[in-house]
Write a structure and sequence with these properties.
This protein is of the alpha+beta class. The protein folds into two domains: 174 residues, Jelly Rolls; 103 residues, Homeodomain-like (Arc Repressor Mutant, subunit A), CATH 1.10.10.60. The protein is built from eleven helices and twelve strands. Strands 1-2-9-4-7-11 form a six-stranded antiparallel sheet. The longest helix has 20 residues. Keywords: DNA-binding, Transcription, Transcription regulation. One of its GO terms (molecular function) is sequence-specific DNA binding. InterPro entries: AraC_XylS_family_regulators, Homeodomain-like_sf, HTH_AraC. This is Helix-turn-helix transcriptional regulator.
């Protein structure tokens, strides 16, 4: 969809006029948008969207008609609990003959595509969630209830909760509604010598800073999922665990070579969040405290 202007969730109301009843924008949820609307009966054109849109009907029944890349209308009855799916990157036209109350979940295509590559261990060249006028899907219906409760009540661990729900919804869509075309053979080789040297040098020079998967992927000019697969083949562990091992080795070196350097300074120089974080990692990986390492 490069070069095509794709509308985002906050622009939907320009194309489907209605009363906004719920909005996750105030919560700044990452990678998932949740909205509620009350609509009168209408006939609307929806331009190509950046996201997949999942619609959950809450009140009233209506005849729902839609057409995508065909002049032929599809028509089904929607009732409370029913689901419609609108795919990413396609214009569509929708019409209904009664007032309806709905909730929307929006998942960006790039996030769903990332999850698809992690599931299939393979790059995806073409990827599409098949549109659905009306289906009964109790699992998707339950996610709407969970998200509405989270939006209204909230609680500790909210970001982790939303990330988990987002991933579960994406996997559910991929299992039941996806068409996929694969672009390359399964990754079967690890990193070459030059790639390993580039990674090691970068991590060593940035050991005291936050290092992201995007940073490492950019160095090797590959996607994050491709990097993760090659990393697992080469080192038998995730990039995060590999980096943490290097942080521990660097901290051990400082503990033994600079006996007067405070533990707090060593922790920060080695890229740990703080001294307590370093101590927990040492206990977990070495079964010793930093002080015990220093006294050896």
């Amino acid at each position: 969809m490069e070069g095509k202007n794709l509308i985002i969730p906050n622009e939907i109301q320009q194309w489907i006029p209605g009363q906004l009843t719920l909005d996750s924008q105030t919560r700044n949820w990452e990678g998932l948008t949740f909205k509620g609307y009350y609509y009168a009966d209408q006939d609307v054109h929806i331009p190509a969207m950046r996201d997949y849109m999942i619609v959950n009907y809450k009140q009233h029944a209506a005849e729902m008609r839609c057409k995508h890349d065909s002049p032929v209308w599809q028509s089904k009855i929607v009732k409370p609990g029913h689901i419609s799916l609108l795919t990413y990157g396609e214009d569509s036209r929708w019409s209904w003959d009664n007032q309806i109350s709905v909730s929307h979940i929006y998942l960006p295509h790039k996030d769903v595509n990332l999850i698809s590559t992690q599931i299939f261990n393979q790059e995806i060249s073409a990827f599409k969630i098949k549109p659905q006028v009306s289906i009964e899907d109790p699992i998707l219906d339950s996610y709407f209830n969970l998200l509405e409760h989270e939006l209204k009540i909230g609680g500790i661990g909210g970001d982790l909760f939303i990330e988990s729900i987002k991933n579960q919804i994406a996997i559910h869509l991929l299992r039941h509604f996806a068409d996929l075309d694969f672009s390359e053979k399964m990754c079967s080789s690890g990193l070459n010598k030059t790639q390993k040297e580039l990674l090691f040098d970068y991590i060593q020079h940035h050991i005291g800073l936050k290092i992201t998967l995007a940073d490492l992927a950019r160095i090797l000019n590959m996607s994050v999922p491709h990097l993760m697969r090659k990393f697992k083949i080469e080192f038998g562990q995730s990039p995060a665990n590999y980096i943490m091992d290097l942080r521990v080795k660097y901290a051990k070196k400082l503990l033994q070579s600079k006996p007067d350097l405070p533990l707090k300074a060593i922790a920060l120089d080695s890229g740990f969040c703080d001294q307590s974080h370093m101590s927990r990692v040492f206990q977990k990986t070495l079964n010793k405290t930093p002080l015990e390492i220093r006294r050896r």
